[in-house]
Every structure is written in structure tokens, then in C-alpha cells.
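User: Predict the full complex structure for these chains.
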Amino acid sequence: MIKYTEDHEWLQIDGDTAVVGITHHAQDALGDVVFVDLPEVGKSFAAKEVAGVVESVKAAADVYMPVDGEITEVNEELRGDPSLANTDPLGKGWFFKVKLSKPAQADALLDETAYQAFSAG
Amino acid sequence: MTASANLLTTPLNALHLELGARMVPFAGYSMPVQYPAGLVAEHHHTRSAAGLFDVSHMGQLRLTGPDAAAAFESLMPVDVMGLGINKQRYGLLLNDEGGIIDDLMFVNRGEDIFVIVNGACKHGDLAHIQQRIGSRCTIEPQFDRALLALQGPKAVTALQRLVPGVEQLVFMTGMAATWVGADLYITRSGYTGEDGFEISLPAHAAEAFARALLAQPEVKPIGLGARNSLRLEAGLCLYGSDIDTTTTPVEAGLNWAMQKVRRTGGARAGGFPGADKILAQLNGTAPAQRLRLGLVGLERVPVREHVELHNDAGQKVGEVTSGLLAPTADQPVALAYVQAEYAASGTRLNAMVRGKAVPMQVSPLPFVPNRYHRG
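Assistant: Here is the predicted structure of the two-chain assembly.
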């Protein structure tokens, strides 16, 4: 199940774990991504807390934790090649994996249709 | 996001939209920040071939009359009266405290002094110049004229096909020309650190001239985003970020722009706003307490404006005014103001990025060598 946030992040949810990244719309708005700051594995965040940073040459943007949970893995390949956030934002450009502490929170996030409408508006 | 309705547009607005530019508000104008190629590709294209920039938001004005040079010189710590015909120079308008009202370029065209100022400052500059020297010369704003910059090592090849003769210009000189009946004034200068030209022309001819340049195989359109990364690598100040009314030219490291004739002991020493303070900073009787300098990052973390710089003891000793991960230098670079005792090349400082110390080192400017055509 894929869900989206109004901060232009996506979550691929499987039970109580999720892979998180930024959307095509987000990477397009940022331009060429040159740097990512990823959270520490094992650290817990509440939803909406800043968990990382993504930067292009012209701008920096916070990456928010979309749901309450603990970081279980980060994308070391993305750290080494931040341009993956541009070239494959929904695939190889993922940011981190989360163990959800309240899986029901995901129900309140946007589905594909709702996000497309939101990002077009 | 669409541009707000009260923004001004340049004569190239329709062309920017046709080329797929992303438009942003800048200096009161809707301006292209990047085209579909993207900032980094545009940056590299300018350094390797030729990039076309629309800088029509900048203010153009001309000063005329027999006293114009002496009058204009009274506003700046710069040699205006000694500038030869068709020679261009960098200038600084100062307030009475020696702070920088604007930085500018001017040319002695013989019949006038032709001045190009920053877009965001142009109305204030005009009022300042009129108030201070309006009784001594005629000041004619030409804010409706277009200004294009063609920058990069192949700029001369592309431009000389349209305007034969430009290849004979050297850095910081200019010439008048015509193109399809339009009067151009072309200088060999720019703000990228590369060889290149700036072309002043009537608004009605701007789109056709820009299309003729873009039809040359070397030329691609370049947005404000790459203009910023190119000028920063070249070590050049952005007005409003790196210099403003609270910084003096000495603090800003612009001593090279103040010729000997205007300094203590020179034939026309002083006589400009803030002269007491600036001459004291220049001759060492009251040295500047802080200096603008370059920093390179020792870790691959971009360091941006407003980031604090700390010494090893954790004390704040400076602040970044511009910074990014530089595409050509391929490392984080920044311009910053730092207490004078920390300004020596090689000094290590910690940039405090999101609460973490990122080590940086004071570096000579520019970060990428200039490639001006000095003949």
C-alpha cells in the first residue's frame, strides 16, 4: 500500500514497516539533489518531526517523519549518490525505513488519487 | 505556483515561458530561475560553452554633462575621472557611514557615463544619485532597455557571428554596434568568472536578438540559479547577501576596486561618502574588525547563508553570507564575514549546520580560476 503526505513524501507500507522517500513532485521542485542528511538507525521520531534534510544547489528542505516510529535502515546508496532522489525517487532514491509504532496512523495519510489532486492544486 | 500578478516582466518573458523556464519573483520581476536542463547542467554549460542570461531587471542609466565624471566620482571611492573612453570599471555607491548602497559597473562612453546597477536597488540608486549630484549633471534612467549576458569560453565565437568586431574587445572594455537596425552597447564583462559579454539593447529588439543567439550551436539559456552558483565560485559578491549598507568595501575585501588616486596620499584622495572611515580602514589607522573571505568545506555538507562560524573554543567568530555545494569546484564553498584575527588562509573554523559542527577552511578567492580575456 502506498501513501503520501502533504509534505510530498511517500510511504510504501507493509504491515508495521514502511519505506519512505520524497515524491516526483518534490524532487522536481528542488532540482538537482546534491546532499542528503539521513537519520540515525535506531532513533525514534514522532510524526511531523524533522528526520533528515534534502538539498539541491539552490535550496534545502527538511524531510519529515510521516508517522510515529523508529528508523530501522537508511539508504546508504542515496547518501553516496544523492542524484538517485531525482532519477528514481520512488525506487532507488528511497530515504529510510521505519517501524511504525501506531500503524493506524497510516489510514489518515493521502492515497494516490488524493495526493495527485493535492499536488496539482 | 504561478507568478504573482503585480510582478514586472522583462522583454524576454514570452521566450522564457516558451523555453519551459521555471519563473520566480526576483527584484520585483518574474525571472527564470532555471530551464528544463536544470541548474547544474546550466552551470556546466556556461563554464564549457556559452550561456545566455536575461538580466533585464538590472537598471541602466546614463550621466551626461561636462561635470558628470567629477560628480559621479564624489559618490564612490573609485577613479571615475581617469577612466579612458570605452573602458569599464566596477564601482560602489556609499552612504555617509561608508556602507555600500549598491555595487555597479560603469563605462566612459565619451558622450556619457553608462551605469548598470542591481535590479533590486535601481530606484533607490536613482533617487540617491539625483539627490546628491542632480544639480551637476543630467541623469537619464533607461530602465526600459533590455540587458543580456552571454558568458562562457565560446561566447565570443557565437556573438561575433552576429556582431563582427566584438572579438577585438578585451575584458572591461566596450563598443557600440548595430544589429538589424537596433543600437547595441556591448561590454566584454560579466559576473560568472568566465570570458563573456553584456549587451544593452532596446526592449523591442531583445527577443529577436536572444533568439538569434540561442540559434548558435554553442548557446543555451541559463537561469538565475546557475548565475548564483557561477558568481559564487568566481568569488563575486551578491548585493543584499554578501554586501549591503552595513558593510564597508574594506570589510567586503573590495580594496582592489579603490584605486590609489582616491586613497590617502593620492591626488584626489577622499571626498566620497564615508571617506574618513574607509581611508582609516585602508591605511591601517582603524583597521576593519571583520573581513569577507572564502571558505571551503572539509566535509561534503552544503553550508548556506546565516550559518554561524565558531572557533575551536565554540565562540561565534563569523557568519556565512552565501554558500552552496559548488558544481565546478565540486565541494562546499561559502562567502562569510569573520573576525579579522581568523581571516588567514588555512584557518580552520566550524560551521554550525543544524546543530552539528562542519569543519571548513579559509580559502583564497576565487574558488574557480577566472578566465577573463585580457588580450
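The CA atoms of residues 149 and 198 of chain B lie 4 Å apart.
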